[in-house]
Amino acid sequence: MVDRQSLPKALSPARTSMFLQGFLGIAGSTFFLVIVASFDAGEEGSGLLAVLATISLVFAATLTACAVLLPRRLPWVRVTVIAVEGLITASALIGIAFALAYDSVHPTQVIPLAFSVPVLVTMIRSDARTWFAGGEPRVELSGEKLLP
Fold this sequence. Notes:
Layout: H1 11-37, H2 46-69, H3 75-101, H4 111-124, H5 126-132
Helix pairs in contact: 1-2, 1-4, 2-3, 3-4
C-alpha cells in the first residue's frame, strides 16, 4: 500500500484537479462520441468531431490514470502529466487566439486553462521534481520547511 502521508500538500489539489479533468473529459468525450454516432456516415464535420473527441478521451483517461498513480512517485507520471497539461494549455491558448482573431471569445474558453495551468506549474517546480525522484524536498510544496 502507498503511504498517503508522503504526498506533499501542493500535490493534493493538483491530483484533485487531474481527477476532475479526467472525469469531466471522459464524460464529455463520451457524450460527443454518442452524438457523432447519430450522424449520417457522410455528414460534413462528423469525422473531425470524432477524432477530436477521441483525442480528448485519451487525454482524460491518461490524466485519470496519472492521478491514481501519482502517490507512487513514478517519475514517468510527472513527465506524462506535464506533457498532457502542456498540450491542453497550448490548445486552449490557440483556441483563444483564434477566437480573438474572429471576435468570438467566450468566457468558457478559459476553463481548460484554469485546470491545466495550476497543475502544470505544480509539476514543473523543483520541489515536485525532487519528490518524484525519491528525495525529500528541502521546502515542501506548500512553503513549509521540512528540514532545517
